[in-house]
Amino acid sequence: MAAGDSVLLTDLYQLTMLQAYHRQNMADTAVFELFVRRLPPNRGFLLAAGLEQVLEYLENLQFTAAELDWLAASGRFSRDFIDYLATLRFAGEVHALPEGTVFFPNEPLLRITAPLPQAQLVESRLINLIHFETLIASKAARCVLAAPGKLLVDFGLRRAHGAEAGLLAARAAWLAGFAGTATVLAGMRFGIPIFGTMAHSLVQAHDREEDAFEHFAYAQPDNVVLLIDTYDTEAAAHKVVRLAPRLRARGIAIKGVRLDSGDIAELSRNVRRILDEGGLQTVTIFCSGDLDEFRLAELAAVQAPIDGYGIGTRLDISTDAPSLDCVYKLQEYAGVPRRKRSQHKATWPGRKQVYRQLAEDGALAGDWLCLEAHPHPGEPLLQPVMRAGHRLTEAESLDLVRERVHRQLAALPAALRANRTEPYPVVIAPELQALAAELDRLEH
Amino acid sequence: MAAGDSVLLTDLYQLTMLQAYHRQNMADTAVFELFVRRLPPNRGFLLAAGLEQVLEYLENLQFTAAELDWLAASGRFSRDFIDYLATLRFAGEVHALPEGTVFFPNEPLLRITAPLPQAQLVESRLINLIHFETLIASKAARCVLAAPGKLLVDFGLRRAHGAEAGLLAARAAWLAGFAGTATVLAGMRFGIPIFGTMAHSLVQAHDREEDAFEHFAYAQPDNVVLLIDTYDTEAAAHKVVRLAPRLRARGIAIKGVRLDSGDIAELSRNVRRILDEGGLQTVTIFCSGDLDEFRLAELAAVQAPIDGYGIGTRLDISTDAPSLDCVYKLQEYAGVPRRKRSQHKATWPGRKQVYRQLAEDGALAGDWLCLEAHPHPGEPLLQPVMRAGHRLTEAESLDLVRERVHRQLAALPAALRANRTEPYPVVIAPELQALAAELDRLEH
């Protein structure tokens, strides 16, 4: 069984709390909201992602016999409690921002309404899924904004943090607007276009670089992209020019070359000139190696003649901001709003909705964070997606999500697009502020 | 099937290169080595981890019928090549640093010797596994060094990058010397001790904080650790003091309290005083929240009266250095040493061994990176672990790995322990330097 499918991929305290809830018969309706407390440096916005994986998890949640046996043998739990866990399913409601929605701090992107134990148990995995995909989709969206018109491909699997990170990073980058990924399994699982060229090892395994190029072309005649930096990039570009007529005679066109090291702004110009002078104006230049949105913006600023980019480690890890301050907090229990007051970690209580205001030209003009019972004009962003543990609609197609992202990024105020120059206005509704103040007056 | 068990969790170029190798009958023996090119800032050493997962992967590597059908339908590959993939298994040799070995840049931690296609295909997943566990084990070792005698627990699952990262971070932290993890599945899969207290939601779900404490104690009488920062930390410490006699009357001892916010150096002192004055000298103080080795060192420097730490996000993501420059490079093919010469990315060619020198007191005194054919005095670090695709011994127990780490960290020169003040000497043997120079004179 995949680790992510196991209910035991959770923190022990979820189970110890469940045992306390069970003992006290605390099974009234709880409302938890998942949100990000603050933006990392450099980020002006975030892009919601991971909902589909969350819904799959909730639909399938149950303890296996082997897991129950192991828990029983641990000596931490009563037989009565283990028997109760055996029957536990998720039968609650989920409201969520649709994947690909732009959002901001304090805005819930997921709201779970369920009997307390069910809503509690799922915390660890829900954060684990939503945090990561949102992190990567947000990073990928910044790359898309930094390199308009360029072909962007996820190359990050090898240094992603484990198998699921590699697979879901491909998904998150695709929904944010990438052209595809190098990760084959993401093609099979999600239908994402896959891209691939060659590695240095193929060149090294041949005694002569030109033999490697030629053999690769015969084996992949429809996708001849040659890696030219193993020894000397410009010398290799000349070899590509010399090889082209021989391949053309066999009906094979060289599609592109790839650079992976050195000063790629300068090298790309020199290689472009060598290719053009050799009559290879249609051969594209694709670059990789330590790229991110900052580097893409620099290369765009100097108009480097590069057609596409493979973005690896810094995308799949979101290196400049590798985590979000993403939390899942109890906001209401048994009909009573709840508030955590810990220093610097206080929450806005109650079940909430986000209302988005749009300017006349469609640009995002500010959000209102409101109690659900006190609506506000604008577009309500949280949508019902699951009731009584069942989805309300089938899984959304990734093409639809990509269109949503495209529209929302186009509507993003300029101050948020690259390095945030001013925060996006999120108004805390007066009723919500009043409720928080009222709860703060309570003794606990 | 778990993503990590699929051969398709790889980069497309591995398959396109394999098709080229297949077409050219290039199946001679290849030697690839996996190493880290340079240390991240702040790191003085790295700790090898992930070998066990690599061996499992290699033993089980094969394409499923569904995967082969999908590849065939993609139109990228010939029928002949697909039939060849159906028979492909890993039948090579593996040499490796035992898990828990301290190592340095340019030193191979894994060497694969196999027919070229087999050794090529596994690149993406081998890096993906070794990179992540080594990253986290190295971070965890720094935490262990920064907090001698403290109970350290991995709390990072929720913000780890996906399911496998959460699970394997628990393993990596455990082998580096942590006392355990909050991740239940790591207990079941790897036998790692699991720890857990309660979340703020349990407190919030009760109208009165003291009721939450009392109910939790009844449900977990053997493990009463109370989270006291939901509203007012010091007020809650007084509630703990008032609750203790009532619990004692029922045979229940409070084991500890947990702080998760605010100035924990100051709060821990105040809470210690409140507990001590209330006769609760044996109740321990456990802290969590944005901790890492830097923060642990600060808290140790001011002698904060804290008994243990839960270390989450900054451990499971290795936030200050969330990736290593970890690569897998062809060093020999068909008996001929190979060298990549790309700018700033040149490699040391040939099959190599690392020899470690120890001072008289057992301290690490310097390593030699040598061609295997030219040994050097000292302890050879790379060990044979797999031959013809089969393990040479059964999986090493994590207890043995923990003992190795303990010994090696004790033998670490002071200059490498916290923030590196000088690099550890790794001598490139003269024969290796001569071979590299000779290859550089070759035309490719």
Describe the structure.
The structure is a homodimer of 444-residue chains. Chain A is built from 17 helices and 19 strands. Chain A has 444 residues and is α/β, with parallel strands linked by helices. Chain A has two domains: 254 residues, nicotinate phosphoribosyltransferase; 175 residues, Alpha-Beta Barrel (TIM Barrel). In chain A, the strands form four sheets. Chain A has a seven-stranded antiparallel sheet. Chain A has a six-stranded parallel sheet with strand order 7-6-11-10-9-8. In chain A, helix 11 runs parallel beside helix 12. The model of chain A has no long low-confidence stretch (mean pLDDT 96). At the A-B interface, helix 1, helix 6, helix 7, helix 8 and helix 9 of A face helix 1, helix 6, helix 7, helix 8 and helix 9 of B.
Per DSSP, what share of the residues of chain A sits in E-state strands of 2 or more residues? 15-25%
What is the number of E strands of chain A?
19
Cα end-to-end separation of chain A: 43 Å
Overall pLDDT score of chain A: 96
CATH structural fold name of the largest domain in chain A: nicotinate phosphoribosyltransferase
Annotate the secondary structure layout:
Two copies of one chain form a homodimer.
Chain A: H1 12-23, E1 29-36, E2 46-47, H2 51-60, H3 65-73, H4 79-87, E3 93-96, E4 102-103, E5 110-115, H5 116-121, H6 123-146, E6 151-154, H7 163-175, E7 180-181, H8 184-190, H9 200-205, H10 209-219, E8 224-227, H11 233-249, E9 254-259, H12 264-277, E10 284-288, H13 293-301, E11 308-311, H14 313-316, E12 326-333, E13 336-337, E14 352-358, E15 364-371, E16 379-380, E17 383-387, E18 390-391, H15 398-410, H16 414-417, E19 426-428, H17 430-440
Parallel strand pairs in A: 6-7, 6-11, 8-9, 9-10, 10-11, 15-19
Antiparallel strand pairs in A: 1-5, 1-12, 2-4, 3-5, 3-17, 12-13, 14-15, 14-16, 17-18
Helix pairs in contact in A: 2-6, 3-4, 6-7, 6-13, 10-11, 11-12
